[in-house]
Design brief:
By secondary structure, the protein is of the alpha/beta class. It is globular and about 55 Å long. The termini are far apart.
């Protein structure tokens, strides 16, 4: 089997929504539409030339299965697109796009990540991201987790109490 050479891949545009502590007035599509439009405009690449679209999100944060399907309304599925979704984040989606390009399945990809944990109770949402068998049932909040991490650093001599 002949070995393929690695293809150079570049990020040619980037956009993001404004960071806010909570946003209860807009849904994922309303947040994503202007960001995706801005990224496409910044790229200078016509939408019809995008050969692959991939999103990364944590649907459980929205409290509904297949939340990514609704988010596709922000992308616009016309003309018909080749699309994928990863249940994680934008970095994982970027990796999937990179793999598709390395394999020659796409030359141009639109990658976006989203999640709206502000729709729920943040301490509960943070706990849901933990190991579901051992840590999540304990419902530790972010401060408690930080304290546990600090204790491990102290006990292993990686940092002193004074340095903290």
């Amino acid at each position: 089997m002949a070995r393929r050479s690695r293809r150079d891949v570049a990020v040619v545009a980037f956009a993001q929504s404004r960071y806010v502590r909570g946003d209860t007035d807009r849904n994922d599509v309303e947040i994503l539409m202007p960001v995706i439009a801005e990224a496409i405009e910044r790229s200078g690449i016509p939408r019809k030339e995008i050969g692959f679209t991939v999103s990364g999100s944590c649907d459980y944060l929205a409290g509904q299965p297949f939340a990514f399907v609704n988010a596709l309304d922000a992308v616009g599925a016309w003309p018909p697109i080749r699309e994928s979704h990863v249940e994680m984040d934008g970095a994982w989606a970027l990796y999937e796009a990179w793999v598709k390009m390395q394999m020659g399945y796409a030359d141009i990809a639109l990658v976006y990540g989203f999640g709206k944990p502000s729709m729920g109770d943040l301490p509960i949402t943070m706990a849901l991201q933990l190991d579901p068998y051992t840590a999540t049932p304990l419902w530790p909040d972010a401060v408690s987790l930080a304290a546990l991490q600090a204790r491990v650093l102290l006990e292993n001599g990686h940092v002193s109490e004074r340095e903290m």
